[in-house]
Amino acid sequence: MGLISPTKPAATCVGCFAWGVLPGRYCRACYTFGQLHPVGECASCHRAVPIKKGYCRLCWLQASLEAKDQVTVLEPFLCRLTCQQLFLSNMHRQRSQGPGPRIGRQGRRRRRPQPPPAEPVTAPVCWTQLRLPIALRRDYTRFNRHRHADPTNPALRAARAAAVALAEARGWTRRVISDVDRALVVLLSTHTADDMIRFSELFPALRHHGLSVGRTMEVLARIGLLDDDRVPAFDRWLAGKLSGLAPGIAADVEAWAHLLHEGGPRQRARSIQTVWSYLTEIQPVLLAWSGTYDHLREVTRDDVVAIKDTLQGAKRENTIVALRSLMRFCRKTGRIFRDPTLRIRIARRPDKVILPLASGEIDRAVATATTPAIRLILALAAIHAARPKMIRDLRLDDIDLGNHRITIGGHPRPLDELTRQALLAWLDYRRSRWPNTANPHLLLTQHTAMENSPVGKLWVTNAVRGLTATLERLRIDRQLEEALTRGPDPLHLATVFGIDDKTAIRYANAARHLLQTAAETPEPP
Fold it and tell me: Hey, where are the domains in the chain?
């Protein structure tokens, strides 16, 4: 992959179909991609090409294009690809390095020594872009380091000192430290007193230069110069759910949703999944009421009963539960005079029958344990019945290897030998892979090793995704196995796994049903 002849005609890359003057049959990016990943069948376009996590480079680029400015996790976009947007070669992550191959870490050619200047170089002229009284946005994309950099700026000096302290506390690599320093030079070389750096201004500039946005924001927030003007994702989602409602009803529902999401003086915050579920269930009902009423105080008990009679099964139960929560909030805060959901009862659905996993399904899940991290995750789910969130939130001080104890979800329990060996293998790998990390969580990735946050949900469940024996099914199977082995005793299940009484009774009833069924089934002759 050397220099390209100036007379070479343009062609199409075999890997990503990009059009341009190529050094060979592949563009530079596809050539590097093929050196790092094995050849296989792409799960989206079904081509036999080098693949990364089941997808080729062309599908990764298309998913990145569809997910632009939305999220950073591309797996959901990869699963629903229906087309491919072709492009010209060398258009992704371009850097202004001039003609010729890349240098340093990105290439194999050493930087040539610069010839001495023929004339003495005058000092660069530093300019300052003052902020006008009107709301104009700074354009940092035009920043030129050679002409505009000012290392003597007080804000830049303070930010560099804060970056050094943060890097020591988080265990940043030298590359991350260098990228953050370059970003700070771009943003703060022309900084003036009492000025704030808005997210809407720094994001396009740092993306233009290929620099880290999140860690630069941490440094700016630490010295008090960040103005995060982003609209929270929850507010954008809530505004979409409230569109079409009557103003009076929308105001009550908005206050109720914020209380569920953020909590209050005498109410704990609910999970975001609960808020999503509640609003999704009652949105059609609220839209129907908005065509007749202006406020929720006009809704009567007959209206709620009419809604109840039109629904069935789980849909009816979930809708009534969400409406009851909304009306109780409005009654408590004085928004309505009477709760129309009082004394409206719904029959409780019978619990689903819990069945144990087949041995073949468990064997397929165990076969995916090819790394120390996956082996530890499967051991925690299949032996200690830990939920994925509990596994993600495990910290180093929750492990007591000397006393053979482990604390999962605030519930201490004995540490068996299989889990202990998986823990030791992971801790050895963690120590050798990230020796300088300051993250207190047990599980780490390349991204979270330089932060204090836990790993992502998709990363934990990625190994068994698509299998019958998921982490949740393994957890359920372990609790059912304990009830079948030690007897259907709810108190024993609650003590061992730290579950509540209703859940323990449910597993005990399921075990009792399975034991009675097995006893009534005659043995084959």
Answer: 11-94, 140-227, 234-332, 359-512
- 372 in helix, strand or coil? helix
Mean predicted confidence (pLDDT) in 16-43: 87
DSSP string computed for 25-63: SS-HHHHHHHHHS-EEE-TTT--EEEEETTEEHHHHHHH
**Contact call for residues 88 and 18 (beta carbons, < 8 A):** yes
Name the token pair of 312.
Answer: 């069935």
Share of the chain above pLDDT 90, in %: 28
The torsion angles phi and psi of 280, rounded to 5 degrees, stand at -65, -35
pTM of the model: 0.63
Contacts of 369 (CB under 8 A, 6+ apart): 375, 378, 463
CA dihedral angle for residue 7, residue 10, residue 11, residue 15, rounded to 10 degrees: 100
Predicted confidence (pLDDT) at residue 110 exceeds the cutoff of 70? no
Longest dimension (CA), the chain: 103
Q: What is the pLDDT averaged over residues 381-394? A: 92
Say which residue the tokens 């069935």 belong to: 312
Q: Is 487 left (phi over 0), alpha (psi -120 to 50) or beta?
A: left
Amino acid at 410: G
How many H-runs (helices) and E-runs (strands) does the chain carry? 21, 10
First-to-last C-alpha distance (Å) of the chain: 72
In 3-state terms, what secondary structure has residue 11? strand
Name the token pair of 415.
């540490």
3-state SS, residue 160: helix
d(CA 491, CA 499): 10
Complete DSSP assignment for 64-106: HHHTTTT-S--HHHHTT-------BTT-SS-----SSS-BGGG
Q: What is the pLDDT of residue 31?
A: 87
pLDDT of 495: 87
Tens digit of each residue's pLDDT (9 = 90 or more) over 266-294? 888 888 889 999 999 999 999 999 999 99
The span from the CA of 468 to the CA of 363, in Å, is 11
Where would I find the beta strands (DSSP E) of 121-249?
A: 197-198, 226-227
**409: closest CA among 382, 383, 391, 427?**
391
Whether 504 and 493 have beta carbons less than 8 Å apart is answered as yes
Distance, C-alpha 86 to centroid of its chain: 28
Cα 55 from Cα 453, distance rounded (Å): 28
* Helix H or strand E encompassing 411: strand 411-414
Position 206: which residue type? L
Residues 6+ positions from 198 with CB-CB distance below 8 Å: 137, 227, 228, 229
CATH number of 359-512: 1.10.443.10
Q: Which of 71, 39, 43 is nearest to 458 (CA)?
A: 71
Under DSSP, the state recorded for 211 is: -
